[in-house]
UniProtKB/TrEMBL annotation:
<keyword id="KW-0472">Membrane</keyword>
<dbReference type="Pfam" id="PF00005">
    <property type="entry name" value="ABC_tran"/>
</dbReference>
<dbReference type="InterPro" id="IPR040582">
    <property type="entry name" value="OB_MalK-like"/>
</dbReference>
<keyword id="KW-0547">Nucleotide-binding</keyword>
<dbReference type="InterPro" id="IPR003593">
    <property type="entry name" value="AAA+_ATPase"/>
</dbReference>
<dbReference type="GO" id="GO:0005524">
    <property type="term" value="F:ATP binding"/>
</dbReference>
<dbReference type="InterPro" id="IPR003439">
    <property type="entry name" value="ABC_transporter-like_ATP-bd"/>
</dbReference>
<dbReference type="GO" id="GO:0055052">
    <property type="term" value="C:ATP-binding cassette (ABC) transporter complex, substrate-binding subunit-containing"/>
</dbReference>
<keyword id="KW-0067">ATP-binding</keyword>
<keyword id="KW-0813">Transport</keyword>
<dbReference type="InterPro" id="IPR015853">
    <property type="entry name" value="ABC_transpr_FbpC"/>
</dbReference>
<keyword id="KW-1003">Cell membrane</keyword>
<dbReference type="InterPro" id="IPR008995">
    <property type="entry name" value="Mo/tungstate-bd_C_term_dom"/>
</dbReference>
<dbReference type="InterPro" id="IPR027417">
    <property type="entry name" value="P-loop_NTPase"/>
</dbReference>
<protein>
    <submittedName>
        <fullName>ABC transporter ATP-binding protein</fullName>
    </submittedName>
</protein>
<dbReference type="GO" id="GO:0016887">
    <property type="term" value="F:ATP hydrolysis activity"/>
</dbReference>
<dbReference type="GO" id="GO:0015408">
    <property type="term" value="F:ABC-type ferric iron transporter activity"/>
</dbReference>
Length: 355
C-alpha cells in the first residue's frame, strides 16, 4: 500500500494545447492517503477516467508527476504499479469456475498454491461467494460477476490501491445498495486505499470518507460528505451535491455587506467582504432557508411533496429560490419573505467561496 501524490499534474489530448479548455486535466495537486476510502465525483467529461488512467499508468500525463510513497512512478508501466481495477462491466473468465477466477491474479504471479487457496477462501467468504466457488462464472448474474471482479481486486496482498470505475452501472437498482455496503465493509476490514469513481452523488457520499469533486478538468473540492454539504468551496459543489442543490443568487457587495435584489443578506463571510470584487453570488442551501416576517420578498410558485417535507420553489424577480418546509408547517399562498440562516449563507466570487 502507498500514499499517492499527484504533483502539478496536467493532461491534454491535443499536441499544442493553448486555451484552458484544451486541457482535459488542468493543474492538479492532490494526495491520496494510504488506506483511505475516496470517491472521485463529477459529471461526464470532467476528467475522471483521464485521472484514473494516469494513476494506473495507462496514460502518461502531459505535465507533472505521479508519486507512490514519494517515488516517482510517472513513467512506470501499469504492471509495475500494483493497482487493481474494477470496471463498469465485470471482467471475468466465463469458462472458469468462480474459484479459478479469484485465484487467477495470484497464480499469474506464481504465488504458492497453498497460499492461493487460503486467500481465495478468505476473500470468497468476505464477498459471500463461498457457496459458489465450484460454479462456472458463466452461470452467475451481473452482480455475482461484479463480485468476482471485486474479489480479484481484493485477492492480491500487494496492491497499492483498488480503483473502481462506475462499478455499479450494470447492477440492478435494488442490489446496488447491497454491493455498496459490502464495499464499505470490505474497506473497513482490509484498509486498502480505494478510489471509487462515479457521477452519482449518493454512491460517492455513502461510500467515501473523503470525496474529490471534479468539474471541467479541475478539482473543485476535497472534503468529507459533511464538509461538502455545509461549506461548498465552489458554487459547482453546492449545485451538484444536495437534492435540490444550493441556491446560487447574484449579489452586489456594498460597504462590506451582500445585497440580493436590493435586500441586505447577512452572511457567514461578512468580515471578509470589504475588498471583494468580480462576479459575486450568495450561496445558501434550501435546508437553511425559511419563511419569515421580513427578509427577501418572493412569490411562491411551486410546491412539491417529497415525503416528510415539501420542496417549495419561490421567485424573486428572475431568480428561483428553493426551500424545504416540514410536513404540517404552513406555506404562504403567494407573497412572502425569506430569511437565510446566516451561518450557512456564503458569498462566492467568480464561483469560489470568499474565505
Ligand atoms: N482519447 C481521447 N482523445 C481525445 N479527447 C479525449 C480522450 N479521452 C477523453 N477525452 C476528452 O477529455 C475530457 C475528459 O474526459 P474523461 O473521459 O476523462 O472524463 P470522465 O469524467 O471520465 O467522463 P465519463 O464519466 O463520461 O467517462 C473530455 O472532454 C473528453 O472528451
Amino acid at each position: 500500500m502507498a500514499k499517492i501524490t499527484l504533483e502539478n499534474l496536467g493532461h491534454s489530448y491535443m499536441p499544442n494545447p493553448q486555451a484552458p479548455s484544451d486541457w482535459a486535466l488542468k493543474q492538479l495537486n492532490l494526495d491520496w492517503d494510504d488506506g483511505g476510502a475516496y470517491a472521485l465525483l463529477g459529471p461526464s467529461g470532467c476528467g475522471k477516467t483521464t485521472l484514473l488512467s494516469i494513476i494506473s499508468g495507462l496514460l502518461t500525463p502531459s505535465a507533472g508527476r505521479v508519486l507512490f510513497d514519494g517515488q516517482d512512478v510517472t513513467h512506470l508501466p501499469p504492471d509495475q504499479r500494483h493497482i487493481a481495477q474494477v470496471f463498469q462491466f465485470p471482467v471475468v473468465y466465463d469458462t472458469m469456475t468462480v474459484y479459478d477466477n479469484l485465484a487467477f491474479p495470484l497464480r499469474n504471479r506464481h504465488v504458492p498454491e497453498a497460499d492461493v487457496d487460503r486467500r481465495v477462501r478468505e476473500i470468497a467468504e468476505m464477498i459471500d461467494l463461498t457457496h459458489m466457488l465450484k460454479k462456472r462464472a458463466a452461470g452467475l448474474t451481473a452482480d455475482g460477476k461484479q463480485k468476482i471482479s471485486l474479489g480479484r481486486g481484493l485477492v492480491r496482498s500487494d496492491v497499492n490501491v483498488i480503483m473502481f470505475d462506475e462499478p455499479l452501472t450494470v447492477i440492478d437498482p435494488h442490489l446496488k445498495w447491497l454491493l455498496r455496503s459490502k464495499l464499505k465493509e470490505l474497506h473497513q476490514r482490509l484498509k486498502i486505499t480505494m478510489i471509487y469513481v462515479t457521477h452519482d452523488q449518493t454512491e460517492a457520499l455513502t461510500f467515501a470518507d473523503r470525496v474529490v469533486v471534479m468539474n471541467l478538468g479541475e478539482v473543485v473540492q476535497v472534503g468529507t460528505p459533511v464538509e461538502l454539504f455545509e461549506r461548498p468551496q465552489h458554487t459547482f459543489v453546492g449545485h451538484f451535491i444536495g437534492s435540490p442543490g444550493m441556491n446560487v443568487l447574484p449579489c452586489t457587495i456594498r460597504e462590506g455587506k451582500a445585497f440580493f435584489d436590493g435586500t441586505a443578506v447577512p452572511t457567514a463571510t461578512e468580515s471578509s467582504l470589504d475588498a471583494v470584487s468580480g462576479r459575486t453570488e450568495i450561496g445558501v442551501r434550501p435546508e437553511f432557508v425559511n419563511f419569515a416576517d421580513k427578509g427577501v420578498p418572493v412569490r411562491v410558485t411551486k410546491v412539491s411533496d417529497a415525503g416528510r417535507f415539501r420542496i417549495v420553489e419561490t421567485r424573486a424577480g428572475e431568480a428561483v429560490i428553493k426551500l424545504l418546509v416540514n410536513e404540517g408547517e404552513g406555506i404562504p399562498a403567494d407573497d412572502a419573505h425569506l430569511a437565510f440562516a446566516q451561518s450557512h449563507t456564503q458569498v462566492y466570487r467568480d464561483g469560489w467561496i470568499v474565505a
